[in-house]
Every structure is written in structure tokens, then in C-alpha cells.
Design brief:
It is a single chain. With 171 residues, this protein is an alpha/beta fold. The chain has 2 domains: 74 residues, no CATH class; 88 residues, 3-Layer(aba) Sandwich (Rossmann fold). It is 27% helix and 27% strand. The strands form 2 sheets. It has a 4-stranded antiparallel beta sheet, with helices on one face. A 4-stranded parallel beta sheet has the order 7-6-5-8. A hairpin with a 2-residue loop joins β2 and β3. It is globular and about 50 Å long.
Amino acid sequence: MSPQTAATCRAGSLEHISNCIFTPALGGSTRCAASSARATHIPSAFYASSAVAAICEIHDRLDVGDEIDSSHPRNHFPLIPAADYVLLAGGIGITPIKAMIAQLHQRGASWRLIYGGRSLSSMAFAEELSTAYPGRVTVLPEDEHGLPDLRRILATMPPDSRLYCCGPARC
């Protein structure tokens, strides 16, 4: 991807980039832009039946600095202006939500995070986010609290707020 393409990434967004690397099963990478100056690329082919093989192939064949063909970023998860934001993350879904939090915090926006996962030890960034944003982050490990109560979350949302959810398809 060229520097020009990288600069088109919207800060605080989830952008998907399709790769054309060796194995067709690899669906792409998720690019989480916390600021317009940098983006993090995370393999997102976990849904593919041979995703592990595809990821191993990348690690075996690519070196730092290798160039690959990819599509332009596609943003399917933009931050839309709102008076308040409720962010609901499950498991690996915290990755794009974390980028959104950074952007919302930078803007001085009103937001809160409800973060669920199987267990506290499996929840990436839980301690980091709780420490960085006290009073805004609720961490709910399933083995201690069960699944987040979506009805209660929706019932307590201010009417002019937006809800962003990201996580696994199954509950």
C-alpha cells in the first residue's frame, strides 16, 4: 500500500484492506486508525477455514519491507457525529473500538465502553483501557458476570447517542 493510500484512512475508524497474498483464503487485514498519522494492521482472516494456514504462509514468506498488492481502504465503521457514544466490544472486537475510543477522547466527546470477553485473562487491553479512562470503561468477563445485558444497555442509552458494537458473530 502506498503512503498516499495510507493517508486516506479516517482517524478513529475501522478500515478493511483486501490483500492478494499467496493464499486466496486470506481475507484481508483490519486497519485500525487511532490517528491519521498511523494505523495498525491486524490479520482478520479468522473466519476463513484455512485462515491459520494463510497466516502461517504470510509469516513464512514475507519479510519486513516486502511490498504486497492490496485494495484501497474501505471504511464500513465510521464514527458519525453524536452527542454521546456507547461502545460495546466483545473479544477481539475491542481492536477497532479501541481506535474509536482514542479518537473520541481526543475530540472531548462523551462516551462509555462496555467490554465483554470469555475471561479477564483473555481480554486484550482491559487493564490498559480501565486505567486510562476510569469511570468510562466497564469490563465484564463472561466467566464472572455472564454476557452483557443488551436490553439494559439500550434502555440506559441517552436518546441522542450512537451505539457501536464489534465482536464475534456468535454469543
